[in-house]
Every structure is written in structure tokens, then in C-alpha cells.
């Protein structure tokens, strides 16, 4: 723990660095919980000193770009790319469900709404160290929603399956994966973000 703390102390602002050293000199025990540095004081108090920003791990090599940025490309392809191709779904739904285009467009609109709205919560959970549970939940909701959309025979079923369920799943996938990509690279970060963001075009074509 001492080596870990010394490694992190050098990356912190001077005032917080001094506060941490002062607290450690008084005999407190520091623990890492997600991205929060929790300090257990001798008198029983537990104090959260500050947030710890994750250190960039990838240096921008070809292997890093192919492994991390390419996987992010696939995530955005299945979220924004799916939404970009909604015009194809709308043409079919208007004919199959015999509903006006203004009704069908609500399905795609709710997908876009939930993608950004849920991101306000999933982003905070990602910062707290819960990226994996959020990502697994989004994967389940996305797959479950598209399966239920294939079985839908009425408008309200399609609205709940593709509009609400897939929208919630997309929100759990898109925002955390994009924010994680921007903090993962120390070099060639713009190229990595570009590779990931190009997934929306790839999904629209497929």
C-alpha cells in the first residue's frame, strides 16, 4: 500500500498531496475503493479525501489500437450505428403495423433519448468503478430488446422492446465505453477516439 500511495501522490495537486501526507503521518489507513481514496482514521471516522483519476495505460501502439479502440468501434456500431439505420426500420414498420410515420418515429426518438439520459447515471457509476456491471447490464438489455422486438406484433410491444429496452441498453454501453476510451490512451488519443466514433458509420451501413 505504501508503494501504491507514493506512486499516486506524485500525480496529485500540491495541496491534496500535502493533506494526504499529513493524514498518513497521523497513522490513518488509506484504501482504494473504485476511484475514491477512503481514509480510516484512528478515531473510527471514514473520510473520502478525493477522487483518483485513472492513469492512462495504453501508449497508442498498433496492438493497443486494435484491441481497445477496435472493440469500442464495435460497441458504438451496435448503439449509434443501429440508431442511424432506423429509417430502414421505420419504412418496414409503417407497412407492417399500418401506423403513420409520426407514431413509428417515437420508437427511434426514445432510443436516442435514453441513450443520452441514462448516460448521466452510467457515467457516474463508471467513475465509481462499476464499469463492468454497467456494461454487462447494457449488453443484456440490448440483446433482450432486439429479441423482443423480433417477436413484437403490436405498436406498444415494439415501443417497449426497441424504444425503451434497447434505449436503456444503449445508454449503459455508449457513454461508459466512450469515456473509458478517452482516459485509456496516453498517446494517439485522437486516433483512438476517431476509430471508436467511426463505428456509428459502420453500423449505419451494415
What would you say about this model in short?
The chain is mainly α and 206 residues long. It has 10 helices and 3 strands, in the order H-H-E-E-E-H-H-H-H-H-H-H-H.
Describe this entry's structure for a reader.
The chain has a three-stranded antiparallel sheet, with helices on one face. A hairpin with a 5-residue loop joins β2 (36-40) and β3 (46-51). Helix content is 72%, strand content 8%. By secondary structure, it is mainly alpha-helical. The chain has helices at residues 2-9, 14-25, 62-84, 86-97, 101-117, 119-127, 131-151, 155-184, 189-197, 199-205; strands at 29-33, 36-40, 46-51.
From the alpha-carbon coordinates, what is the Rg to the nearest angstrom?
22 Å
Q: Element order, helices and strands?
A: HHEEEHHHHHHHH
What topology, given as strand order, has the largest sheet?
A: 1-2-3
What's the total helix number?
A: 10
* Residue share in β-strands: 5-15%
Alpha carbon gap, first and last residue: 49 Å
The number of distinct β-strands equals 3
Weakly predicted, low-confidence segments: 1-11, 25-36, 47-56
CA-based shape: globular
- The average pLDDT is 76
Helicity range? over 70%
Largest sheet: 3 strands, antiparallel
Classification by helices and strands:
mainly alpha
Amino acid at each position: 500500500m505504501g508503494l501504491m500511495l507514493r506512486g499516486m501522490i506524485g500525480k496529485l495537486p500540491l495541496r491534496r498531496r500535502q493533506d494526504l501526507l499529513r493524514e498518513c503521518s497521523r497513522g490513518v489507513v488509506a484504501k482504494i475503493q473504485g476511484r475514491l481514496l477512503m481514509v480510516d482514521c484512528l478515531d473510527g471516522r471514514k473520510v473520502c479525501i478525493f477522487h483518483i483519476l485513472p492513469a492512462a495505460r495504453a501508449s497508442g501502439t498498433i496492438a493497443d489500437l486494435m484491441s481497445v479502440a477496435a472493440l469500442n468501434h464495435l460497441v458504438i456500431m451496435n448503439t449509434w450505428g443501429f440508431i442511424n439505420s432506423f429509417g430502414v426500420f421505420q419504412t418496414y414498420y409503417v407497412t407492417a403495423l399500418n401506423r403513420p410515420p409520426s407514431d413509428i418515429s417515437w420508437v427511434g426518438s426514445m432510443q436516442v433519448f435514453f441513450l443520452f439520459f441514462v448516460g448521466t447515471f452510467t457515467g457516474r457509476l463508471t467513475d465509481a468503478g462499476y464499469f463492468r456491471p454497467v456494461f454487462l447490464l447494457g449488453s443484456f438489455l440490448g440483446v433482450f430488446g432486439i429479441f423482443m422486438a423480433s417477436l413484437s406484433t403490436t405498436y406498444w410491444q415494439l415501443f417497449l422492446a426497441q424504444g425503451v429496452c434497447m434505449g436503456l441498453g444503449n445508454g449503459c454501453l455508449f457513454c461508459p465505453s466512450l469515456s473509458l476510451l478517452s482516459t485509456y490512451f496516453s498517446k494517439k488519443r485522437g486516433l483512438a477516439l476517431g476509430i471508436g466514433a467511426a463505428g456509428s458509420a459502420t453500423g449505419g451501413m451494415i
